[in-house]
Amino acid sequence: MARTNSQRIESLLRRKGLVRSGDLESKGISRSELQRLHERGLIERVGRGIYGLPGAVLTEHHSLAEATRLVPGGVICLLTALRFHGLTTQNPFEVWMAIDAKAWRPTQKGLKLRIVHLSGASFHEGVEEHDVAGVRIHVYSAAKTVADCFKFRNKIGIDVAVEALKDFTRFHRGGANDLARFARICRVSRVMQPYLDAI
Predict the structure, then answer these.
(1) Is residue 75 assigned to a domain?
(2) Are 35 and 70 in the same domain?
(3) What is the pLDDT of residue 58?
(4) Where among 52, 72, 91 does a domain terminate?
């Protein structure tokens, strides 16, 4: 039976890259079986309750896939989204993730998450899907991320927000309409305008 389960797990990991223990349990594989497979070196624990194939090549964005597995309803945002879109020189040591204002705040060990709460259009608008390590992640678009940086300028620093705005205008020519739309959604149009005028 262990062989059958190990084959099922291997097939699942090859397709998805990373899986949560809960996903495996729903397919009839117990935690004790996972532990045995881990001890035999057939699977690797890459995070709390998250498994992958041993020796799998981890990408620069592996932590984003891991964060998405931990918080399935979350959206990669702020400094982490800036890094994903190449709009900052910052290299955050934690994954910034937005969750709905009414959602429970996840508890985690190992991977460092920085959670922000958003609601309504500011949470749901501007979400893109990308495939990372076989995991479908949600990340805010470049324009939405810049607007969010101004919204959360007290958390990340106005200098980071201004740098992101400059990089966005340089790399996303023709993105002014998207930027203006998300500035309205995030209610930061007046805050951003002087910086836009100065560019």
Answers:
(1) yes
(2) no
(3) 54
(4) 52
77 in the same domain as 6: no
In whole angstroms, what is the distance from residue 178 CA to residue 168 CA? 11
Q: Please answer whether residues 13 and 23 qualify as being in contact, where contact means their C-beta atoms are separated by less than 8 angstroms.
A: no
Residues of the chain with pLDDT under 50: 1-2
The beta-strand segments (E) located in 25-85 are 44-47, 50-52, 75-76
**In 48-188, alpha helices (H):** 62-70, 78-85, 121-124, 142-151, 153-156, 158-171, 176-185
The Cβ of residue 35 has, within 10 Å, a number of other Cβ atoms equal to: 13
What does pTM read for this prediction? 0.73
Check whether residue 97 and residue 25 sit in a common domain. no
Domain that holds residue 45: 2-52
| pLDDT at 1 (0 to 100) | 44
Is 57 inside a domain boundary? no
User: What is the residue type of 15?
Assistant: R
Measured in whole angstroms, the distance separating CA 64 from the mean position of its chain's CA atoms is 4
Eight-state DSSP code of residue 29: -
Task: Kindly give the interhelix angle for 158-171 and 189-198, rounded to the nearest 10 degrees.
Answer: 60
